[in-house]
Each structure stands twice: as structure tokens, then as C-alpha cells.
Amino acid sequence: MAEFLSLHDAVARYVQDGSTVAMEGFTHLIPFAAGHEVIRQKKRDLTLIRMTPDLIYDQLIGAGCARKVIFSWGGNPGVGSLHRLRDAVEKGWPHPVEILEHSHAAMACAFEAGAAGLPMAVLRGYIGSELPSVNEQIRFIECPFTGERLAAVPSVRPDTSIVHAQKADRHGNVLIEGIVGVQKEAVLAASQSIITVEEIVDELDTHPNACVLPSWAIDAIAVAEKGALPSYTHGYYERDNRFYKKWDEIARDRDTFTQWLNDHVLNSAESAGGQV
Amino acid sequence: MGSEYTNSEMMTVTAARALENGTTCFVGIGLPSEAANLARLTHAPDVVLIYESGTLQTKPDILPLSIGDGELSDSALTTVAVPEMFRYWLQGGKVDVGFLGTAQIDRFANLNTTLIGDYREPKVRLPGGGGAPEIATSAGEVFITLKHSKRALVKDVDFITTVGFGRDGKARDGVPNIGRGPSRVITDLCVMKPDAETRELVVVSLHPGVTREDVVEATGWEIRFAEQLETTPVPDENELSILRELKARTERAHSGQQE
């Protein structure tokens, strides 16, 4: 059964130095509040998995939490580069970070295979791409029935997955609505999971085919109001596109970034996405 | 004639016209999204737009800044999980056209969105593959749109993130269950198509006012021109006004998000 914890206690219990952590949410429902708590607790040597590192991993990387990043598209959507990711990869600041990159299709399949308890995912992928030459985790197999050459990647099995959702009921069942990304797969693929929610309600008030994660499939639930900002929560608040644009200036320079991190994360209480 | 328009508008309108009504199109963010939505708002009201965030048959009123903006989900027929999007809808063969942008493209229409320089010591690190590597092979065909420059159109890309026709033009030969690949490349100067035999990109149409020299000057390889070189039709008033309204709405929404 899911346990209701404070965000501080959930992160302290389920994220250890050296852990493999997936904080998912495809543009939507990115668990920024949880990411900031990980930064505040100064977790180190994390292997961070996310299809789109987005600002949340840019912040974790710049704060020195990451040792390795596994991803499939590492930009600031519609704006440009993730400058902290680039600085770590190109210049080793604040320390070198190893990267392992995939395509979206392969990562989505790898999360799904993880949720399904399989060791690997098979897809018709990477044909003609040079990504397999720089990522030894991309291999090829022959279909035993047709002989077709198909790509294989290891499944994603994080120690801990963290996602944000609209709401939980008092039993700890969680509803995710809108763009659902790979959140359900991330939670089911992980050994442990934390879900932050906007609110706790008496009834989820949902329909039969909704994306619901049952309480017994979750370890911890923490309330984090506006916990996805500057990303968004469908039905609650919109994406703060202005902040995504502003991040380009903040993250471009090490000093400006460090100042921002001090002001809005490290010296701030449990924050809603580090907004001003 | 008589309408004033920019090179960028010429590119977007030409890219939009490439999409036929009723086509199912997997849309990349940025220029492809702008063109695909212009098509939907003009000659192709029944075009089906799919974005990798899982939004099926979406009709955004403003252009999304990110691939997963709420606008895409709000205006979609339905929203599916990302694994379903890639496995059932793309890999399953339900997409006619993949519409992509890129940082670099080479003469065999291979795309590089990974990095400039050497992989272990990149000069410039780019975002990476995203959905493109499989969109380019699973979609029936691929349209590519980008701004024309010598830095972007190179003889050989530094890294093949997404295959066009490979380093030798033959990467798709004999591969089962693979799409036709890039069928046209639309820039702000011209339209290119792959040569039927060599697969090397050839200019088939110059935009009005653009010379062969302009294209040669802005291309990183010895670009060839089709024997019957055409002039791209100019945008009409309706296309231009709808495009400008779309961009103005988008600009207003993205700058005043919280109002």
C-alpha cells in the first residue's frame, strides 16, 4: 500500500546516492518539486533516466547530482540547448557526466519492457542510424520466425521512479490525465516509486479506462501543490512557457545558474518548481 | 501576384502545400509543425496530425512551443501513451508522412541532430534523436524542411542520427518493412528531391527570385539541378493571412501565458 509521506521524507527514504532514478513526464507533469528536493538533499552519483532531460535534469546536472544520464532528446523544447547538460558533457562542469543516448521509440519500448518484467525490448528501430556505434546497449537480433533484423535494447528497471499526477484518493490510488507519456510504465518498471500529487481527494471520480495506478503498486505519495511547474498539470495550471524561455539565460552562465539554484532551490523550502 | 512575403513564409507555405488533404502526418516540432498546421487551416482540413507526445488527430489553435503542450492534448481526438504512439501508430504502419526538421542534412538526406564534431569531443552538442530515427524509417515517406545554409546543408553529416539514404545512397535497399524515405526537402530557397537512381538530392524547383548561384552558394556540396527546373508557385493572400494570424496568436499565447 502507498504510504503518505512528506516530500522530504519520501526522497530521503527512496533516493540514495548512486541510485538509478527515472523522473518521468513527457513535457507534461514533470516532477520538478521532487527534483528540487533531490537537489536540496544533495544526492550524488545518480544515474538519471528520462526520455527528455528537460529543465529538471539540467538543474540536477548543474547541481552536481548526476553521474550518468540516459535520454533520447536533450533540448529545451522550442527554445534551444540545455546549457547545464552541455557544459557537463562538453566541459565537465561541475564534474564529468557520462551520457547514453537512444531514440524515443527505443526508450519508450524499454520502459514498457521494464514494466512487463522483460530483460529487453525489441523494436524495428535504428535502421541506418549511427547511434548504435556510440551506444553499446543498442544491439540487433534476428526474428526467430521471419529472420527480420530488429533492434534490441535492455529494459529500463530504475531503483526508483518519480512521477507527478493530478490526484490521489485517501487510499492512495492515483489518477493521471492528459499526456500520460511513459509514467505508468516508469512506476511499474521501478523497484520503488514516489508519486507527487496536486491534491488528495475523497473520490478519484474517473471513468473505466482512465490511467489509474493502484495504491498497492506505489510506495510513497507526497502532496506537492504546483509540483510540476514550470511544466504543467492538465486541469490545474498551464505550462509556464515564459520560464522555459527565461531558463535559456539563467542556465547559459555558470554564475547565473548557481545564483538561481541558491535562491530558488537550496535556500528555499519545498518549492513549487522554483518559480519566482 | 503582388503579395509581399518573406523567404520564411515562402518556405512554410511550400512545405504546407506538400501535405495532401486526408494524409496522416507524424509532425516534428518547429517548422514542420507550423507547415502542417497551415496545411490543416487551408487546403487540407482533413489532414490527420499526430505528435509524439501521444496526441492523435490534434487540431491546435496555436502552435505548440513543446511537443507536449496542453493545447495538443486539449484539441486531440484522443491521447495515448508514448509507447503506444511509437509501437502501434508509427511502427504499426499507420503514418503516411513523417514531417521533420533538422540541424544538418547531407546530399543523401541523412539528418544530424546529435552533434557537430567528434562524438567523444563534440564542438557543439545538439539535442539528439528524439522520435526522428524511427519516424524516418516507419513512415510511408518523409518530408524535411529547414533553412538553407552552408552550415546546415553539408556534403556528409558529422553523425547520422536519422537515416535518409545512408552514406552511399543505398541504406534502404533490400531492407524489409521500411518506408520510402525522404521524398522532398523544402528550404527557404528551393525544393529538392532525391535522384531516382543515386538518391542524391537534386533541386527541382527554385523559389521566385532565387538564382542557381544563390543555391550553390548556400549548399555544402556541388548541388545539381533538375533538367526541367521549375519555379515554385508564390503563396496566395489567403495562405499568407492565415499563416500570419496563426503566428500572431501563437506569439500572444506564449508571451502572456498566465493571463
From TrEMBL, chain A:
Coiled coil: none
Keyword vocabulary terms for this entry: Transferase
GO molecular function: CoA-transferase activity
Entry superkingdom: Bacteria
PANTHER family, per database record: ACETATE COA-TRANSFERASE YDIF (PTHR43293), CHOLESTEROL RING-CLEAVING HYDROLASE IPDB SUBUNIT (PTHR43293:SF3)
Protein name: CoA transferase subunit A
Phylogenetic lineage: Bacteria, Pseudomonadati, Pseudomonadota, Gammaproteobacteria, Oceanospirillales
Automatic annotation (TrEMBL), chain B:
GO molecular function: CoA-transferase activity
A matching Pfam family: CoA_trans
Domain of life the protein comes from: Bacteria
Membrane-crossing segments per the record: none
PANTHER family cross-referenced by the UniProt entry: ACETATE COA-TRANSFERASE YDIF, CHOLESTEROL RING-CLEAVING HYDROLASE IPDB SUBUNIT
Name by which UniProt lists this protein: CoA-transferase subunit beta
